[in-house]
Write a structure and sequence with these properties.
The protein has seven helices and two strands, in the order ααββααααα. The protein has three domains: 3-78, no CATH class; 80-114; 130-191, no CATH class. The two termini are 68 Å apart. The protein has a two-stranded antiparallel ribbon. With 194 residues, it is mainly alpha-helical.
Length: 194
């Protein structure tokens, strides 16, 4: 049995009980039948009329609830979606929460952890990635591709000129490791303006 159906049944029974007790009739009447247009009906007729009224009231309540839900959705859609620098959006419900929040206070979903100080996917202001530079250094470092990628054209040419000696291969492996352990701030300072 669903909650909505159960609620309808409870409301219907309360309305019928109220009708039989006489509190559902206008003031100044004497009991459930005096001054009531239903007084000539059989008790089953009263019960049927009460069910009709309760169904009508339930339908009105459901329409009102639906109207309020739609009004709330329209209000939230019309609001501008913006956040301050110390806020972020919840990954589940989209609510604005504090940047440092680990759990959303509205939906209770745990948020993704904050980025660490040594993030491999960090990107410099000029669009260069630390991870891409390290991969270039490991796999194509012997011909200086990582140097060209980082904007050090002169060093890239030197790597190409000496690639037959395998010295650039050894140096590029060391540089690849250095790029991986380098902090984001240092990477941005060193290669972010090229």
């Amino acid at each position: 049995m669903t909650a909505g159906f159960h609620l309808q049944a409870v409301l219907r029974e309360l309305f019928i009980q109220r009708l039989h007790l006489g509190s559902g009739f206008p003031r100044g009447t004497e009991g459930p039948t005096a001054g009531n247009p239903l007084r000539n009906l059989h008790p089953e007729g009263i019960r049927e009329k009460a069910k009709e009224r309760s169904n009508r009231y339930i339908a009105q309540a459901q329409e009102y609830r639906l109207f309020n839900t739609i009004k709330c959705i329209c209000r939230t859609m019309s609001e501008t979606i913006s956040k301050s620098p110390n806020e972020k959006f919840c990954t589940e419900c989209g609510a604005r929460i504090n940047v440092k929040a680990e759990i959303c206070p509205k939906c209770g979903v745990r948020q993704s952890p904050a980025p660490s100080a040594n993030n491999l996917d960090s990107v410099a202001p000029n669009g260069r990635s630390k991870l891409a530079a390290a991969l270039f250094a490991f796999f194509l470092g012997s011909i200086g591709v990582h140097k060209f990628y980082l904007g050090r054209i002169g060093w890239g040419v030197v790597y190409i000129l000496f690639c037959w000696t395998f010295i650039p291969s050894i140096v590029s492996l060391i540089e690849g490791i250095m790029l991986l352990v380098m902090s984001d701030a240092e990477f941005n300072r060193k290669y972010g303006n090229c």
